[in-house]
Write a structure and sequence with these properties.
By secondary structure, the chain is of the alpha/beta class. The chain has one domain (about 50-205): Vaccinia Virus protein VP39 (Rossmann fold). It contains seven helices and eight strands; from the N terminus they run βααβαβαββαβααββ. Strand 3, helix 4 and strand 4 form a beta-alpha-beta unit. The protein binds S-adenosylmethionine.
């Protein structure tokens, strides 16, 4: 079941139609799931995941990594969210024990829970209002929780790739290292680590006002 929240006043974003149109072919055009899972396994210790965690994945698309995530945090819980109904429909066909939610992360909506980890995998550049998206992502974190933004390529590679795509995503950009401290600060978050090299972009952040027992 897909639950829809926080959409009523969302401004139209042409990316919604773009990703809806791509959904039926997304799995065929993505890099092989086995390759992606193998890369994730090598990064496992760096992603902030542990069994029993409550995780929110934002921009889950067709659920390329959602099943891996659910297995990794079992017996914890994964809520997977996206604003594209067609992407979520494809994800739903995977038969995962995951709760899917339709939401636009750039719009203030209900908080879906207090999560240990909020993860954006291959999605952040497409959030049309990145300061607003960060504020919303932060609202879903426990005081001890953390945000992870992950790409299996660096910001320069991602941005060059997007520049070669068509409207409306050809100007979608992943900010470079210099921009993140201020972006995160404005959302009440602070950077804890950032790797940006040709084959990996991995950002971890935590609430600026956290409790002493925060593992981040
Ligand atoms: C490049 S796709 C990646 C999907 C998936 N993470 C994967 O790796 O296959 C980016 C996803 O972000 C979603 N997205 C873009 N803007 C969004 C927004 N404002 N709120 C929620 N999801 C959004 C799109 O619908 C799309 O599914």
């Amino acid at each position: 079941m897909i639950i829809k929240t926080g959409q009523a006043d969302a401004p139209p974003d042409p990316r919604l139609a773009y990703f809806d149109d791509l959904a039926p072919v997304w799995n065929a055009e993505c890099s092989s799931p086995a390759t992606t899972r193998a890369r994730l396994a090598t990064l496992d210790g760096e992603l902030g995941l542990a069994p029993g965690m409550e995780v929110l994945e934002v921009g889950c698309g067709t659920g390329q990594i959602t099943g891996w995530l659910a297995a990794r945090v079992h017996p914890g819980r994964v809520v997977a969210a996206d604003f594209s109904p067609a992407m979520l429909a494809e994800a739903g066909r995977r038969g995962l024990r995951v709760e899917f939610r339709q939401l636009d992360i750039c719009v203030e909506g209900p908080v879906l829970g207090a999560f240990d980890l909020v993860l954006c995998f291959h999605a952040f550049p497409h959030f049309r209002d990145q300061p607003a998206a960060l504020r919303q992502l932060a609202r879903h974190l426990k005081p001890t929780g953390g945000l992870t933004i992950l790409h299996l390529a660096g910001s320069a590679q991602i941005n060059a790739f997007h520049a070669g795509l068509r409207e409306p995503v050809c100007r979608d950009r992943l900010p470079g290292a210099d921009a993140w401290p201020a972006l995160l600060h404005a959302a009440g978050l602070e950077l804890t680590s950032l790797t940006d090299r040709a084959d990996l972009f991995l950002l971890r952040a935590r609430p600026a006002r956290r409790t002493a027992e925060s593992p981040w």
